[in-house]
# Entry
Amino acid sequence: MDLLWPGAASELDDEALLALTAMPEGRDWLRMNFIASIDGAATRDGRSGGLGDAADRRLFDLLRRPADAILLGAGTARAEGYGGMRLDDASVAWRESRGLAAHPVFVLISRSLDLDPASPMFAEAPVRPIICTVAGAQAGELADVADVIACGEGDVDPLRVRAELAARGIRHVHGEGGPHVFASFVAAGAVDALHLTLAPTLDAGDAGRITAGHPAEPTGMRLASVLRSGDELFLHYVRTASGS
Ligand SMILES: NC(=O)c1ccc[n+]([C@@H]2O[C@H](COP(=O)([O-])OP(=O)(O)OC[C@H]3O[C@@H](n4cnc5c(N)ncnc54)[C@H](OP(=O)(O)O)[C@@H]3O)[C@@H](O)[C@H]2O)c1
# Structure
């Protein structure tokens, strides 16, 4: 993977990629990671995985590495069949050498709580997950396998999610979607940065974008870096100071 901007460098190793994409020390930070085709499709055959290649997978895994938590919408968890949020051995060693917990906390966003407490997401979780839901939602057996917290009334309020996580010492949050969660966090002004992989294909068809629902005023973003692997681009955008 090569750096195109700022500066230029060939075949960045993992440490260089981690340094380039680091979340700011001493600041609460929430970023999202998505992939889309050149013409904006966020899925192929209903999942994001078909759009990515080995380089995207490498960055996807590295972006998880420094996070205190991985945030995910229930729709993506159901569509993609997530397992327990367990990082690989290299990531665990990297984290432990820096005083971080071995694995990040898995944070799920769900209004309905239509999640199977027996699924690998919970059964194989190395750290007890957190589910952010709405007041009055019935946790049932989910309460046995996760901390279920109310973060809103009709909708989960992204700013309350951030406040609840910060109160638990979770300051660096790495989100993996999906589109409805991303849009609601954008609309609330709760997203600091976006890592967007541009897969070099034109997919046509009716696949959705990386945001869905939740109309919002446009959020201004500045370009932080551009990486390339073959014809694939990896764009890193950070919200402008004013966000407009
Ligand atoms: N291209 C990519 O990088 C990428 C990344 C992630 C996902 N995807 C794709 O996106 C598709 C899933 O899309 P999606 O939009 O359904 O995913 P999503 O945003 O992960 O999940 C939507 C669900 O999250 C919960 N939710 C989201 N915002 C909420 C809010 N403000 N308050 C309360 N609950 C909220 C609801 O869960 P409940 O229904 O449980 O109430 C809602 O149905 C899949 O096909 C997946 O493969 C693509």
